[in-house]
Records
---
Amino acid sequence: MPEKKKVLVIGYGGTIVMIVDEARKAIVPAKNLEEIMKKLPTLNEVADVSMDFLSNEDSTNVGPNDWTRIALYIRDKHDEYDAFVITHGTNTLAYTASALTLALGTGIKKPVVLTGSQLPLSVYGNDARFNFENAIKTAAKASASGINEVMIVFSDTILRGCRSVKVSESSFRAFASPAFPQIGSITSTGIHFSPDARHGDDNIPFEISPHFHPNIVSLDLTPGQSPALVEELVKSGKCKGVILKSHGAGSVPTIGEYSFLPFIEKTVRHYKIPVIVSTKFLGGNAYKEVNDECAVLAIQAGAIPGGDLTDVMTEVKLMWILAQGAFDEQQIRGRILDNVVGEISPIAHSK
């Protein structure tokens, strides 16, 4: 029988690690692995499981500093374990998955699985047990199969972390990958990875880039929105990048007082700040070959098309690029469209 894989569970909060405190008759975060193992006694049959609690913060409050902290922690523990599982609240789980994919890079030699749940372990009919057990199984199977990437396990799906978004506040299938196939599935016959799952490359060294520059403005465009209000944020000098989530494939208003074309041109040419146009719709694609005139005019004014990056990844990737010191608009343009870790499709950044 093959030796069990060593899996480190990094507790970073989430409903999935909530249990009932019998004394207080309240649902509270578990204090350690032992409390969780009482609910999931068979976990160690699948892998040699250890757990470190780093945070019990509500995921709404998890941000760039947390992404850095987790990435550094994985780096420090990288050689001690075969795989990593991160528990996380669902609100920002896709952000953390996207950020870790960039921070850990393609040289990571271990799989990293993020999971959460809609209901806590102590509630009858919960999804926490299913997701927790399957995250451990997926991590162990990925390690045995040489699959080394950041992924999300939720319900019966395995998704590439940097391609995932939250699609429901209540469904047990709360996450999806609208513009990229799921990289695996979980069935009664086991864990099944697709050919799209990324295998490790021993020729690429494991080097991390764990920092993020949060000073960006991400705006969901609505009819009648005033570009002048957004320009006030740009004029403050604190903003280092702008993302316009468009009505279509990168299209923005182009007529009269609500036209964003002068704003884009001034922001890019005068303030030397990049403007990215993306789409707010699941599975959408903003790319330069688009036939939408309003999108073409935005690109001609200086906007960068975001391709099929998710709205989450567009924001995270811009913060990550800015933290690398690429503040020149042309440098940022090239890096946004570059496929770093499988986050964007080739057609979306064709020259």
Note: The chain has a mean pLDDT of 91.
---
Amino acid sequence: RIIYQRKEDLSLAGFYYVGYGDCVRCFNCGGGLHDWKEDDDVWVEHSKWFPECTYVIEQMGELFVQIVQQLKALQEK
């Protein structure tokens, strides 16, 4: 599987490559992601699936995480 996101962006968002496919894991919360789409934003995806990650909160702020969670809730309706 191709990872469309730049490795520098994944790293800044706390992710490291786990060694297969397009799977990455957060060094802080341990959350893993895969099946990346070309237009996925690394910070949005991290915040969407792991909103309790203290690294994301420290880097992006609680408001960012809250907005991402609100958008996720709207998309799920």
Note: Residues 7-75 form a domain with the Inhibitor Of Apoptosis Protein (2mihbC-IAP-1); Chain A fold (CATH 1.10.1170.10).
